[in-house]
Structures are given as C-alpha cells and as structure tokens.
Design a protein that fits this description.
The protein is α+β, with helices and mostly antiparallel strands. The protein has 3 helices and 7 strands; from the N terminus they run H-E-E-E-E-H-E-E-H-E.
Length: 122
C-alpha cells in the first residue's frame, strides 16, 4: 500500500472533490473501499459526480467525517468508471465494510439508476 493510500486506512468516509466544466470543485462525502492500491467509490449512475468524472477525471480526496469535514490531507488523483467484472467484487467489499447501512442506502437510492463504480488512483 502506498503512503498516500494509507492515509485512508482508518476512515469510513472520504471527501471526493470532482470538477464541473467551469473547473468549479464540488465536494461530496462518500463511502469507499480500497483494493490493490486503488480507492473505489460505489454510487449510482444518475449522480452528479459520475457526470463530472466523465467530463474531467481529475479529483481530490481527503479522509473526512460523515458531514464531509476533512480529517486529513487532501491528495490529487485520477478517476475512471469501472466497466469490468470487478464491479461485483467491489460491491461485495462495500457491503462487507458498511453492513446494514449499505442495505439502507440501497433502498434510499433505488431511483438513481444502476450501480457505478468509480476507481481512484492517487
């Protein structure tokens, strides 16, 4: 694990900053999992962060609390949408890490489309 990735070992949330077309940053606290030095975020296809990453794959992330208040250093990275069979493995890791809370989130966000996995390399 890289030094940058180890910044997130004890966190439940990261603050994910994505960028609009006008380069204005949008910060969103999200759940995440790590695998093979890559940080993965599970979201739904109709969210703003997916649209913004498709336009501009540069991101910044920092460990944070559930409200998005950073608890550590911001680091830059590049994000892309995962289109492979790996998607099911990442969903399993997310469900294992967040347990019952993940099931509730699934129910709340059912109208936001299919799952999308965002991979972030820092």
């Amino acid at each position: 694990m890289t030094r940058e990735n180890s910044l997130f070992n004890n966190s439940s949330y990261i603050n994910l900053e994505t960028y609009r077309k006008d380069k204005h940053g949008v910060k969103t606290p999200v759940w995440f999992v790590q695998k093979n030095n890559i940080i993965y975020v599970v979201t739904k296809e109709k969210t703003g962060k997916v649209k913004r990453i498709k336009i501009n794959n540069e991101v910044k992330i920092a460990p944070c609390d559930y409200k998005g208040t950073p608890t550590g250093t911001w680091v830059s990275g590049r994000a892309h949408i995962v289109e492979s069979i790996e998607k099911n493995d990442i969903l399993r890791l997310r469900n294992k890490k967040y347990g019952f809370k993940a099931k509730i989130a699934n129910l709340i966000s059912f109208n936001k489309g299919s799952y999308v996995i965002i991979a972030i390399q820092i």
